[in-house]
Amino acid sequence: MGGLGLVLHPTRDVSEVVGIIERWATRNRKSLLVGAADRHRVPAGVEAVPGDELAARADALISIGGDGTMLGALRSAVRDPKPVLGVHLGRLGFLVEIAPPELPEALGRLLDKDFTIESHACLACDLCGDDVVAFNDIALVRQPGSGFVTATLAVDGQRYGYYRCDALVVATPTGSTAYSYAAGGPLVSPAADAVVVTPSAPMAGISRSLVLSPTESIRLELEPNSAAVAVEMDGQVINDAATEGTVAISYRRDAGLVVRFDPLRYQERNQLKLSLLDLPFLPDQLRELLPEELRRQHDQRELPPPC
């Protein structure tokens, strides 16, 4: 394996995690790369490269942060997908798997190629160009005080109806747990291939979520009476005052590669995270939410007394 590219959370302190990685890289004679904008946040031995070259120069990426940082890493490598290892910094996340104490073992397994790849689809939008994509969702969002998003829907060229709502969210299965879910959309298995279209606070027109095949093309055309809308991709504003035009959206399989060391354990953790959103869970599953030390203390208290 050659160099590892570091993708850092934009504001959180990542020095401890970067230090773990840097010491491991020194022991194993592996090079580390980081985008030039983050040069001041890493040790001197980490090579700074232009941000748009980081994914191309690295054999794998290490995302340090949460799901937002992970999504950024996946987007940066969409032209030439590279394996991305997510390191969690403590908040609820559905993509990241590794906690900082697990890093030395995880990096060793990464070096030995002892891992599996979980492929992720993305949505591409021709409003923004082929190289601008979303792994969670594309959203048309009304500007506060400016009225409603009013847009017609066409699937494979066939017009089906219109939306009048606060926001219109088009999501991948991965993104179904994010904005789409908050808007009332369904939770979709990450193993499924599907696109979910969900209106937020619908006032008229189509009022329910629509689940489409990944092979169907989607076109959303703003109506003349629509308010000015912002177009967001994975929460990032791409256009902040669109008043006309058409957004064409297509689905791309295998656009992102996520490193998994223990897919079953990761799946169990995500089931618990989903239970925090609404899904029912068993009381003993709460044990898995506890830190390891607290789990041991809990298990010791549960042991029967000696005879």
TrEMBL record:
Keyword line: ATP-binding, Cytoplasm, Kinase, NAD, NADP, Nucleotide-binding, Transferase
Matches recorded under SUPFAM superfamilies: NAD kinase/diacylglycerol kinase-like
Active-site residues from the entry: D67
Catalytic activity: NAD(+) + ATP = ADP + NADP(+) + H(+)
Transmembrane region(s): none
Residues reported to bind NAD(+): D67, G68, N136, D137, R164, D166, A201, Q236
UniProt main location, coarse: cytoplasm
Subcellular location, record wording: Cytoplasm
UniProt GO BP: NAD+ metabolic process; NADP+ biosynthetic process
UniProt GO molecular function: ATP binding; metal ion binding; NAD binding; NAD+ kinase activity
EC annotation from Swiss-Prot or TrEMBL: 2.7.1.23
GO cellular component: cytoplasm
Swiss-Prot/TrEMBL cofactor(s): a divalent metal cation
UniProt cross-references to Gene3D superfamilies, sorted A to Z: Probable inorganic polyphosphate/atp-NAD kinase, domain 1, Probable inorganic polyphosphate/atp-NAD kinase, domain 2
Domain of life, per lineage: Bacteria
Purpose of the protein: Involved in the regulation of the intracellular balance of NAD and NADP, and is a key enzyme in the biosynthesis of NADP. Catalyzes specifically the phosphorylation on 2'-hydroxyl of the adenosine moiety of NAD to yield NADP.
Family named by the database record: Belongs to the NAD kinase family.
HAMAP family: NAD_kinase
Protein name: NAD kinase
Species of provenance: Micromonospora mirobrigensis
Native organism taxonomy: Bacteria, Bacillati, Actinomycetota, Actinomycetes, Micromonosporales
Gene that encodes it: nadK
